[in-house]
Each structure stands twice: as structure tokens, then as C-alpha cells.
């Protein structure tokens, strides 16, 4: 890609993130973006049809990368023995997704933040649920999760837990390293709320 194009794309992206920190996307205009990026409107329209195309470009790029990670490296996920056998206690897909979030930290932070786009999170949640369902079908011959509580509630606990960890990381004043976040995700996959409350530790000490 031509150096000038790369520089312009970088300026637009930097301006977009800065503006999204200050106000919701719907309140941001193309004029705001061009002024913050230090470019004219004509230059912006050479790259994007409008601000919605810009947002779609950023979101689709991130979703497509995460989708590719799941398609390529989700096969061994949800099998405890796999991690024990290989000595790799972080599933590849977890490491790759966390690595992408780290590389695009500021973009994920504004998209998931209070001025961000709820549709982006919904799109990712839908993709993750579909990937887990497909894997469950391969392992169990069905996509149903636990029968102890209604399916929708079980899925909400499974999916929201993962996203909450990432969003907590993004909003942290002193963000942990990607390696630490990977470890947190892996540990919480095998801990119940009872464990997280420290009740099992208390029982063991009695």
C-alpha cells in the first residue's frame, strides 16, 4: 500500500478513536473526523463513503480476524485433556483473540465503551456462541448446554463471562499483560461462582 495512503488511514483511525472517547458515534460528523485527522473532506471520501462505512470497516476487520481465529484454532477448545497433554494451558484461540485485543487496544476500548457501538459486541457474541455451539455438536452430538437452568440463561453466563473479562481489562487504569489476561480467562473457565467467592478455599482451611 502506498505510504501516503497508509499515513492517511492512520490519521483517520487516530482521529476516530479520539472522537469516540469524547462522544457517541451518532454525534460524530465527517467534518469532526477530517478536522481531527488534519485532512480535507475530499480525501476522506476517497477512502470511505461516509462515517458509517468507516465504522463498518473497523468493526468488520476485527470481527473477520476473530472469526478466522475460531475457525482455525477452536477444534481442541473445551477439552481439558488437550491442554494437559500438550502442556499448553492457554488455548490458541484465547491467546490469538487476546493478542488482537492488545494490538488494537484503543479501538476495542472505544467500541466496547460507553460511547461505543452495542451492535459490535452483539455481533461478536453471536459469532462466539455459534462457534461454541458447533463445537458442542461435534463433542456431544447436540448443541444444548446444561439442563439445570434454562438454556438462554446458561448461554448468557457462558458468553457474558468471557466478554466481561475483556471489558474489565479494557477499562482498567493499569491493564494487565495479555499473558495475565489469558491466564485469567483459562482459570475462570474451570471455576464456579462458589470458587470465585473463595468459599471452597475457606472450606479447605477448616
Automatic annotation (TrEMBL):
It holds the Pfam family TetR_C_8. Residues 29-48 bind DNA. Residues 6-66 form the HTH tetR-type domain. InterPro entries: Homeodomain-like_sf, HTH-type_Tx_Regulator, HTH_TetR, TetR_C_Firmicutes. This is HTH tetR-type domain-containing protein. It comes from the Bacteria. Keywords: DNA-binding.
Amino acid at each position: 500500500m502506498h505510504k501516503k495512503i497508509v499515513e492517511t488511514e492512520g490519521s483517520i483511525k487516530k482521529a476516530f478513536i479520539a472522537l469516540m472517547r469524547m462522544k457517541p458515534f451518532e454525534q460524530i460528523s465527517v467534518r469532526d473526523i477530517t478536522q481531527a485527522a488534519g485532512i480535507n473532506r475530499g480525501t476522506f471520501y476517497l477512502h470511505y463513503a461516509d462515517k458509517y462505512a468507516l465504522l463498518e470497516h473497523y468493526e468488520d476487520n476485527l470481527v473477520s480476524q476473530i472469526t478466522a481465529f475460531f475457525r482455525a484454532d477452536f477444534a481442541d477448545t473445551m477439552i481439558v485433556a488437550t491442554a494437559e497433554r500438550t502442556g499448553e494451558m492457554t488455548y490458541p484461540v484465547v491467546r490469538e483473540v487476546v493478542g488482537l485485543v492488545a494490538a488494537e487496544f484503543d479501538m476495542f476500548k472505544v467500541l466496547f465503551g460507553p460511547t461505543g457501538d452495542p451492535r459490535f459486541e452483539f455481533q461478536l457474541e453471536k459469532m462466539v456462541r455459534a462457534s461454541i455451539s458447533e463445537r458442542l455438536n461435534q463433542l456431544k452430538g447436540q448443541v444444548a448446554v446444561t439442563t439445570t437452568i434454562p438454556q438462554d440463561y446458561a448461554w448468557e453466563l457462558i458468553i457474558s463471562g468471557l466478554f466481561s473479562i475483556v471489558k474489565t481489562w479494557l477499562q482498567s487504569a493499569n491493564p494487565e499483560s495479555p499473558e495475565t489476561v489469558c491466564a485469567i480467562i483459562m482459570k475462570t473457565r474451570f471455576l464456579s461462582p462458589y470458587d470465585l467467592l473463595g468459599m471452597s478455599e475457606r472450606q479447605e482451611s477448616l
